[in-house]
Amino acid sequence: MPAKIKANDDRIQVTAIAVLLLARERMGRAQAYGLITPSLADFRDDYAGYKTAFPTRTWDEAKDGSPLTNKARRKDYFKLVNAMDTVLGRIKRNKTSFSSLQELDNYLASSLKAFD
Length: 116
Fold this sequence. Notes:
Blueprint: H1 10-28, H2 36-45, H3 47-53, H4 59-63, H5 71-94, H6 101-111
C-alpha cells in the first residue's frame, strides 16, 4: 500500500506548478477553459515531455504571466495562480492528506473547476 501524501509533501507543490505551467501554455494557444483536467492528464501521462518543455519548474516561474501577450488571458492566468495559491494554503492549513496521486488530481480539479 503506497504511503499517504501529506499536506507538506513536495508532490503537491510539484503538481500545482505543473498545472500552472501547462495551463499557461494552453492559454497561450488561445484555450481559455478546460485547463485543469487536461493539464493534469498531460503531466501524469508524459512526465518526460513536461520536463523537456519546462526546464525551469519553480513556483516563481509558474507565477510568471509574461509569456502571455494577451492582457485578458494574462489576467485570467493570474486569477488561476491566485486560486491555486488559495487551494495550496487550504491543503496546508487543514492538513489535508491524499491516499493517491489520483485523489490529489481529483481534489485539484474539483477545487479549480471554474477554470476547467
